[in-house]
Prior knowledge:
This protein is an alpha/beta fold. Helices cover 36% and strands 23% of the residues. Keywords: ATP-binding, Nucleotide-binding, Transport.
Amino acid sequence: xxxxxxxxxxxxxxxxxxxxxxxxxxxxxxxxxxxxxxxxxxxxxxxxxxxxxxxxxxxxxxxxxxxxxxxxxxxxxxxxxxxxxxxxxxxxxxxxxxxxxxxxxxxxxxxxxxxxxxxxxxxxxxxxxxxxxxxxxxxxxxxxxxxxxxxxxxxxxxxxxxxxxxxxxxxxxxxxxxxxxxxxxxxxxxxxxxxxxxxxxxxxxxxxxxxxxxxxxxxxxxxxxxxxxxxxxxxxxxxxxxxxxxxxxxxxxxxxxxxxxxxxxxxxxxxxx
Length: 273
């Protein structure tokens, strides 16, 4: 495998952003007054990047992800996904979304859960079967097609939800703390598997996490957000090879980036209104 950092590759740096946000803000109107969830966000994410959003609870990480996915609507500024509005990108099925919980239907087998978006989109039975098999193989769940969610571990269920998000081959994968409820050993293994999947598929990934080691291990860039109103405090590059393993966490380069993220999170608190 190549050891060229993804963000340095010409095909990533020279192409139009997959996501572009300018002066993006979101304010909720409540009975107790306005709540400023996002404030003046400027961010470009280019093809093939793995960008993690990190910050304290309530800083707007998930809100920003939901704006990208057209699950929330910005109240100020502009954002495009693949050159169009988030609404149009959703209609074009430009992204797959992985939630914090697997959200699998317990009465459907793993294969039928993965196939659900394809059924909705009108794919033929033969095409559904081919795509389900290919994506379950990608997440190392081949042979579990006829199992039900309750027969799988939490980590396996989350891998099935990733296969479902990939089933219609979107260019963009949005992931909202998908491994946050799992124990550290399982989480480490899934981080390695996700990194390999990202390398194989070439998808653009936007990943929300509370974990500094997870963000540093997975990312090409880390977006450090300050507490509400959610602002970008820092954007930190992670110049690691694509074929990194967990052992990289013991290197000085990894430790230095993790410390920079910690410093940014501490500094970010000074921006609380």
